[in-house]
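Exercise 7. Given the encoded structure of a 222-residue chain, write a plausible sequence.
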């Protein structure tokens, strides 16, 4: 009985996610769902990304955390529209939450909506939010065995970002092993090695995101 209930919840979520995607498409908004462990560098990555692309793409952010508005405050400091969702114990965002949060923006002035999901490599894998692109962030200090240990989230992601690449000399982290594991699960997903701290790889990543927005039919030049 419990399994049936879980399936029903997931099916209802998929329907709502499809509605979110339609709404975003109508408004010309490209949406990314950023997933990864707590502390993998998701917010720092968004800060570094926006400083490079905001002249070309108008961003907005939905922040998901169990509690606090720490990340929303960081994004607000950049003058970027942001809505914070506090899940109060839930380990992932769902499509209902995103539908409600998206109502807090004027979508007509947004080109790229970035959702920072709750830090978690397990639960977030099962919930489509209506995004166009799921981006998984794996940081060097987490270890190079995480794809092998937590396959679903990597299999269901469109892009892998290996973050905190500046820390590579201090950890036994084999980036080629990670890339090979990712290729097995998601052969078409590009892999980026970046450091938001030193800027290594960030310009390439920013250019790639701009291109994805453009290909998605979203306006890039204003
Ligand atoms: N060395 C290094 N530290 C980073 C980098 N990106 C983030 N951090 C640090 O990692 C910690 C967690 O970052 P944060 O962006 O809040 O992670 P989140 O929980 O995934 O959003 C903070 O102390 C950041 O300063 C990076 O590229 N290099
Ligand atoms: Mg964060």
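Solution.
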């Amino acid at each position: 009985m419990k399994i049936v209930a879980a399936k029903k919840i997931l099916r209802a979520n998929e329907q709502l996610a499809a509605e979110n995607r339609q709404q975003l498409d109508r408004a010309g908004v490209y949406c990314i769902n950023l997933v990864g462990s707590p502390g993998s560098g998701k917010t720092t990555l968004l800060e570094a990304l926006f400083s490079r692309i905001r002249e070309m793409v108008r961003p907005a952010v939905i922040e998901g955390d169990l509690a606090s508005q720490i990340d929303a405050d960081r994004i607000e400091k950049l003058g970027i529209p942001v809505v914070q969702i506090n899940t109060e114990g839930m380990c992932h965002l769902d499509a209902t939450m995103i539908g409600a949060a998206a109502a807090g923006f004027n979508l007509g002035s947004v080109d790229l909506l970035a959702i920072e999901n709750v830090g978690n490599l397990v639960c977030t894998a099962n919930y489509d939010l209506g995004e166009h692109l799921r981006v998984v962030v794996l940081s060097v200090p987490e270890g190079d065995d995480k794809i092998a240990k937590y396959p679903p989230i990597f299999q269901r992601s469109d892009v892998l970002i290996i973050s905190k690449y500046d820390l590579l000399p201090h950890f036994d982290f084999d980036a080629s092993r990670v890339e090979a594991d990712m290729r097995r699960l998601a052969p078409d997903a590009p892999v980026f090695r970046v450091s938001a701290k030193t800027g290594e790889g960030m310009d390439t990543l920013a250019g790639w995101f701009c291109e994805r927005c453009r290909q998605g039919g979203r306006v890039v030049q204003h």
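Remark. The CA atoms of residues 57 and 140 lie 29 Å apart. Students should compare their own answers with the one above.
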